[in-house]
C-alpha cells in the first residue's frame, strides 16, 4: 500500500501546529497574559500605530472580540486610543510607554522560545518551509 504524501503532510502539519500552539500558549501565560492580549500587543509593538481593523486582520481575531481585548489592555494602561482627525469612524490604537516597556521585556524571551523550536532546522529548510506553507495557504484560500 502506497503512502499518500498529501495526507501524511496534512496530518504532520496539524500535529505540529497543535504542539506549537500549546507551547506558545504556555509561554505567553507565563507572562500573565492571554494569547489574544499578547498578539495585539505584539502587532502594535512591531507595526506601530494601527486601526482596530488592521489589528484584527493581523492577529486573526474578529473586530467584535478585538474591541474587548483592546478595552482590557487600555484599562491596564498598555495601549491608548486616538480618534482620526479626518474620519470619526476610525480609531488608532498605540502602545503606551508602559506597553512598550512590557514588550521590550517579554518579547525577547518569547522569541527565544520560538528560536529554540527551530534551532535544528537550517535556514534553507526554513525558507523551504515558509514557501511551501505560503503555497498551501494560497491554494486553500482559492478553494475556500
TrEMBL record:
One of its GO terms (molecular function) is DNA-binding transcription factor activity. Residues 6-138 form the HTH marR-type domain. It holds the Pfam family MarR. It comes from the Bacteria. Keywords: DNA-binding, Transcription, Transcription regulation. InterPro entries: HTH_MarR-typ, Tscrpt_reg_MarR-type_CS, WH-like_DNA-bd_sf, WH_DNA-bd_sf. Coiled coil: none annotated. This is MarR family transcriptional regulator.
Amino acid at each position: 500500500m502506497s503512502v499518500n504524501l498529501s495526507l501524511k503532510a496534512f496530518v504532520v502539519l496539524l500535529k505540529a501546529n497543535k504542539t506549537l500552539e500549546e507551547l506558545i500558549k504556555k509561554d505567553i501565560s507565563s507572562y500573565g497574559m492571554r494569547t489574544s492580549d499578547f498578539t495585539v500587543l505584539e502587532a502594535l509593538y512591531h507595526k506601530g500605530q494601527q486601526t482596530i481593523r488592521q489589528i484584527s486582520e493581523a492577529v486573526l481575531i474578529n473586530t467584535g472580540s478585538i474591541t474587548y481585548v483592546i478595552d482590557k489592555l487600555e484599562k491596564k494602561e498598555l495601549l491608548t486610543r486616538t480618534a482620526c482627525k479626518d474620519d470619526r469612524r476610525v480609531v488608532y490604537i498605540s502602545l503606551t510607554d508602559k506597553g512598550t516597556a512590557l514588550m521590550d521585556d517579554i518579547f525577547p524571551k518569547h522569541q527565544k522560545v520560538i528560536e529554540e523550536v527551530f534551532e535544528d532546522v537550517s535556514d534553507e529548510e526554513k525558507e523551504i518551509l515558509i514557501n511551501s506553507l505560503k503555497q498551501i495557504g494560497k491554494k486553500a484560500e482559492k478553494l475556500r
